[in-house]
Each structure stands twice: as C-alpha cells, then as structure tokens.
Design goal:
The protein is an alpha/beta fold. The chain has 15 helices and 18 strands. Strand 8 (133-136) and strand 9 (139-142) form a beta hairpin.
Length: 366
C-alpha cells in the first residue's frame, strides 16, 4: 500500500518515500510544499464558510458511523474497520482491544460533536459560526476566528487524540495534519470519512513529513497543536499560537483522612496507571501517600503483574509491545539505574515471575 500526500483535498505523490514496513510506504511532503499550500488556504476556508455550521455538524455525526463501519479510501487501496485495526496494531504494537477502544473514543467525539462544541463555547448556538453574532441570555455575542487554519502534529501512541482537532471543521477552520510516523491510518481514515459524509475535500491537508516539515506546518498555520516531551514544550514555547501537550506527570494524592480506606481505591489506582496500556499522557506517574506505603505498593504490584504480555489479537490483551525496541531497552536500563538509589525497590519483581523486559509474540514488552 502507498499513502500519498493530501494537498488540500488533492492526492499528490512525492519522490521522497518512507517505507514503514514491507507492505506500506508513505509519500513525504517537504516544507516548501506545505508553505505553498497555505497560500491557498483562503479557498479552503471559503469552502467551509459556504456550508451552514449545523449542516457541518450533521456531516460530522454521519462521519462517525463511516469511521467505525465503512470501507474507506486509504492510499491506493481501501480499508475496512478490521483492516484498520490490524494495520494500526502492526505498526504501533497496540493490541486490537486498545485500537478498538481508541476507535470508540473518536466515534464518541464525532457523534457527539454538538455536545463537544457546546462545552467549548458554553452552549452558544452553532449559527454564531455562520453569522459571527448571536444572542445569549438577551445579550448579543460576537465571534471572530483568530485563525484561518489549524496545524496539528500528531503522535503515534494514542489514536484517540485525533478527536482534539475535530471541532475545528464544524467551526469552519481548515485543518492541516502531520500524522505520527507509526500511525498514518487514523487521521487519514477520519478525513476520508468526513469527506464522504459531505465535508469539502479542500478543508483537509494530510502531510506525512519530517521534523522540519512538522515545524513548518505548526509555525505557518495560524494555530497549532503538538504532542511530545519536555523538549517539544521548550521548542514551541516562543510560539503562543501553538498548544503543546507535553509529558504527563499526573499524580494521585491520598490524604490523611482517606488513607486508611486505601483498599477501596485500589482498582482506581490500577486503572489510572494501566489504562490504554499506560501510554497516555494522563496515565498516573506517581501515587503520593502519607502512610501504608509498603502495603499499597505490594497490592499494586500484585495487580499490575497480572497484566501479562499477550498476542496483539488476543481479546484479553492489555499490554502494548514496543515498536522501537531500543526505547524499551532504554526505559529498562533507566529503571535499573534508579533502583540503585537508597530506599528504591522494584515492587513488581516478586510478583511477575521473570525479568522486566520480555520478548514474546515477536514483540518486546515491559
């Protein structure tokens, strides 16, 4: 399968190709091509402006069902939902169960787009995106978009984050997407579902590209969304129009008044750590307690050690393999180094019955 660039709705083949595996090649957009396309963004905006926002919301709701159930164009082929699940799992190492869970989250955001936008606008009617003015509680409220384009540089670890750019289209803002290297499928499947549902194809740009191309996309669009590490946060800090979703440092704090009841919350603690294979930026990274530390650690370790490596297509699989084995080795080594600190111990070591890094089902797991 070959996946070309989508230049504001028009398929484009590049001479610069990236082979992701023996069956999949993506065409790479260079920064100049992205800049040239942005010169025509007013045409994309006009195509959206010509359609009432209420109709665009209808299209988005219809696209939700297409995304979940339809055979949709994917490069030089078509891809049904089962093909999508297997293809994405093979690249990202997400088990099928988690790909399907993420599909459900995208579907929910698309099918409930009116509720989503209502939350963003505090319940303003959709006509405000058509007329630029509406009446709320007897007061006239104006709306003026601060951008004519949204650029999004997507990650590969969590397909559901694609739900974040969906409202822009109903709000009549064209979207330019840089897919994550290991997930070219999710954003393209959403785009194709939205086009088939009625959105103008000119409203979408899809640009597999380099880091330089990603920088160009984010800094050249009027607004941007990016995902990454602390390095990413620092990189885009000077650009106030770019929203960066950085490293997650979510904590659970149990206070003195609840700590004696910690067993009641054990399942919540386990789920907060392990949901989505532990890949999400909102997964819990530390639990802070005033007492019962060893008891809670042992109970958590026993529960977490029950989550075993399983084949990607196993209906009980919850643990993700690593597409990049070097990353698994690096994390494993980092933990070993941190365990040299006085007082630190690997609580799961006594429960998992083997080494932390495991080779199984043609994958590397931690």
């Amino acid at each position: 399968m070959q996946i070309p660039i989508l230049r504001l709705g028009e398929s484009y083949e590049s001479a610069d190709l990236v082979e992701l595996n023996e069956n999949l090649t993506t065409h790479t957009a260079n920064p100049g091509l992205i800049r040239r396309d942005l010169l025509r963004i007013s045409e994309s905006k006009a195509a959206l402006d010509a359609i009432p926002a209420d109709t665009l919301a209808d299209y988005c709701e219809a696209a939700a069902e297409l995304f979940m159930n339809a055979e949709l164009p994917c490069g030089d082929s078509v891809q049904g939902p089962d093909d999508y699940v297997e293809s994405l799992s093979a690249l990202t190492r997400l088990p099928h169960t988690l790909v399907k869970m993420n599909m459900g989250k995208v579907h929910a955001a698309m099918s409930q787009i009116r509720t989503v936008i209502g939350g963003l606008t505090r319940g303003m009617p959709l006509e405000i995106f058509d007329r630029g003015i509406t009446s709320v509680g007897g007061l006239e409220v104006n709306y003026y978009p601060t951008t004519s384009s949204l650029g999004v540089s997507l990650p590969s670890n969590a397909p559901a984050v694609n739900s974040l750019w969906l409202p822009a289209l109903v709000m009549k803002i064209p979207v330019l997407l840089k897919p994550g290297r290991e997930d070219p499928f999710t954003p393209l499947r959403i785009v194709q579902a939205m086009i088939q549902a009625g959105f103008p194809k000119e409203a979408f740009g899809y640009y597999p590209t380099t880091h330089e191309g990603g920088d160009t996309l984010l800094t050249s669009c009027g607004a941007g969304i990016s995902f990454g590490s602390d390095v990413t946060v620092r990189k885009y800090a000077p650009f106030k129009n770019i929203q960066v979703h950085g490293t997650g440092r979510s904590k659970i704090l149990i206070g003195e008044d609840y700590i004696d009841r910690w067993e009641e919350f054990l399942d919540v603690l386990v789920t907060s750590i392990s949901a989505n294979g532990g890949r999400s930026c909102i997964n819990t990274s530390a639990i802070l307690v005033p007492s019962h530390c060893d008891e809670i650690a042992e109970a958590l370790a026993a529960k977490l050690a029950e989550i075993k490596p399983l084949a990607r297509d196993d209906s009980d699989a919850l643990l993700c393999g690593f597409a990049n084995t070097a990353l698994a080795e690096g994390i494993d080594g980092m933990i070993d180094d941190l365990l040299k600190e006085e007082g630190a111990r690997d609580a799961t070591a006594g429960h998992r019955g083997g080494s932390r890094r495991v080779e199984a089902f043609d994958q590397t797991y931690l």
